[in-house]
Amino acid sequence: MAIQKKSTETSIIRRGLSRRTNSSKAFEDMSAILEISKAMMAEKDLDKLLGLIVLKATEVLEAERASIFLIDYDTNELWSRVAMGSEISEIRFQADKGFAGYAAQKREVINIKDAYADSRFNPDVDKKTGYRTRTILCAPLITHKNETIGVIQILNKKLGVFDEYDETLVMAFSAQAAVAIENAQLYQDQELTLKSFLKAMASAIDARDPTTAGHSERIARYAINIGKVIGFSEPELKLLDYAAALHDVGKIGVPDAILLKPDKLTPEEFAKMKQHAVKTKEILEQMFFGRELREIPHIASSHHEKIDGSGYPDGLKGDNISKAAKVLAIADVYDALVAQDRPYKKAMTHEQAMAILNEGRGAKFDAGIIDLFEKQQLYKIERRKMGRFNIAIPVEYTILAPMPVTTPARSQTVNISGLGALVTSVRLLSIGSIIKLKFSVSERPYSSAVRVPPNAFGGTSYQPTIVGSPYGPLKLPYYELTAKVVRGEKKFAHKINHLGVVFTDMNEQQQNELADLFKLQTAGASAPR
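The structure assignment produced for this chain is given below.
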C-alpha cells in the first residue's frame, strides 16, 4: 500500500509539473503573439504583411511552412502570393477546394494528421511546387466585422503532429492576423483612391495642353530617382512623388491663349503664366492632407524657386527652400529642356540640358543634386516613344504560355499605346505569361493618312482599305496581337486586377501605325498622356 501511495503522489506531482510547464509555455507563446501582433499592426504594406505573418506563424507553430490564402469574391477563388520555399508567385484554386477551402467555408480550425489519407486534400499545389505535405493546420481569418477574408495554412509540424494546443494557438494568431490584413487592405484602398485622384488631376492638365503630356509623370520618376540616392525615407519619397504629380495643377487657371500659345510669351503673358505656381498652392491648400503629406502644397508650388531668391512665387532663398522642392526644380527644368519638340522650342540633347543646369549651379539650382543627377545617371528613366490613351476598348484574351488556356477571358483596356496596354483581368497572371489579345474596334472611317498593310499586326480578321480608295473606308471589326505580361497589380478598391502587357514581335513602324489607330479610335475623346 505504501508503495502504491508513493506512486500516486509521484503521478500527481508530475501532472502538476506538466501543467505548470504548459502554463509557462502558453504564457510565452501568448506573449510572443502579442509582440507579433504589434509588428503586424504597424505594417501597412500588404505584401510585406503577408510575408511577416507567414514567417511568424512558422516560428510560433514550429512548422516547416505556412501560407496565407485570401478570398477573391469576384471569382470565388482562394489565392496566395506567399508560398515559402516555392518559386510560384501566386496560387489560385476554387474557394471550396482543399482544406483551406473547407476551413473558409466552415469557419473552423482544421487539423489533419495525414494529408494524403484525407479525401478533402487537394494535391494540385504539391504537384505545382514539388513539396510533400504531411500534416496541415488551417484556420479561417475572420475580421472584427465577422467576415471571412481568407485562411492561414500551416504545413508539416517539425516534431510529430499538430495537437489541441496548436489549434488554440493558431486561433489566437489568426484573429490578430485577420485584423492586420483588413487594416492593410483598407490602407491600400485609401492609397489607391488618393493615387487615382492625383492621376486624374494630372490628366486634367494634360488634357488642356497635350504638348506637355506626360510631363508630371516624368518629373515624378526623376524626383524619385534623386530622392532615393539622397536618402529620403519612404514617407518622404511618397511626399515627393505626390508633389511632383501635382506641381502644375495651377495651370488650370491659366488662360488658353497663354497656355497654348505656340510662340514665345511676352513679358506680360509670362507674368500671368508665373501665377500658376500661386494657383497650385491655393488649390492644394483647399485639400485635406494627413500629417505625412501636409507639405505637398508648399513643395508643389515651390518648384520654380531659386537658391539666389530670383525664383517665384515667393522669392525664397537658400535653406528656406525645402530639399524636396530643390529636387523638383532640377527635374522640372531638365524634362522641359529634353522633352519632345514643342511648338515653341526644339528638344535639347542631354548634354545641352545639363550645360544649362550647370550654368545655374549654386545660384539657381542645388549643385550637389546636379552632381548626383549627372554622375549617377538619374536622368535615365523610361520615356514613352508615343502617346498613351485612356480609352476602354473591349478585349478578349487567351493564355498561350506557360499553361495554355483556350477559354477566352473578357477584359477591357484601361489605357493603351502602340507599345502595350494596361488591361483589366479577373485573374492576376504571372509575370512573363504570353497571351493573345483580341481587340474589338468600332467600325468607323479613318483618315487617309493611316496606311496599314494587311495583317501588319498578325490579325487575320480584316482587310484594311484607305479612305478615298475604290474600296471605301477602313473598317476594323477586330484584330489580334500577341503580348507578354510585364506587370500585375491587385486592385482591391475595385476587386479587379490590372495587367500591364507589351506587344511582342512588332517593329517600330508597326508600333507607330498601331498608335495612330488608337489615336483615331479616341476621336478626340481623351488626350494622350
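Interim note for the steering committee: The mean pLDDT is 79. The two ends are 94 Å apart (CA to CA).
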